[in-house]
UniProtKB/TrEMBL annotation:
Source species: Aquilegia coerulea
Annotated protein name in UniProt: Phytocyanin domain-containing protein
Chain ranges passing through the membrane: 7-28
Domain of life: Eukaryota
Record-annotated Phytocyanin domain positions: 29-143
SUPFAM superfamilies: Cupredoxins (SSF49503)
Keywords: Membrane, Transmembrane, Transmembrane helix
Example GO molecular function: electron transfer activity
């Protein structure tokens, strides 16, 4: 977790590291995916992610969607493997992180703990929700450097 945000001595670095890890917890945000739109078919999540960036390490994304019922489409949440599979909505090596029931109630919470790109998408309809429904977005959470 030692992110270098400038040239610092070891002792300073240690103090800053301790401070920032506290700060990171204090400032970590919980972001509802899509805002009041929640997680549904036909909303531009790439645009949403762009408007809500930057996002930071330890921020939590909350996906809210109704469990399967007679009136709404079921949804889920997958992590796609890389940028290529994100572009193509290719779910072959994707990992399901939330199934069709996990978005109910308070929603499904995903904390971005790693410094890496995250490619989220809905896997329903064999890529149809991802492609036509625009239910996909990418986030690269940044380390916080407020000192
Ligand atoms: Cu969907």
């Amino acid at each position: 977790m030692a992110f270098k945000c400038g040239l610092i001595s070891y002792a300073q670095g240690l103090i800053i590291l301790l401070t920032t890890s506290m700060f990171a917890v204090g400032f970590a945000k919980t972001i509802v995916v899509g805002g009041t739109e929640n997680w549904h078919f036909g909303f531009n999540y790439t645009n949403w992610a762009f408007q809500n960036s930057p996002m930071y390490l330890n921020d939590a994304l909350v996906f809210k969607y109704d469990p399967p019922n007679g009136t709404t489409f079921p949804h889920n949440v997958y992590l796609l493997r890389d940028f290529r599979s994100f572009l193509d909505c290719d779910f072959r090596k994707a990992k399901m992180v939330a199934n069709v029931t996990h978005g109910g109630g308070k929603g499904f919470k995903f904390v971005m703990k790693k410094w890496r790109p995250y490619y989220f998408a809905c896997g329903e309809g064999a890529g149809f929700h991802c492609k036509t429904g625009m239910m996909k977005f990418a986030v690269f959470p940044l380390p916080r450097c407020h000192f």
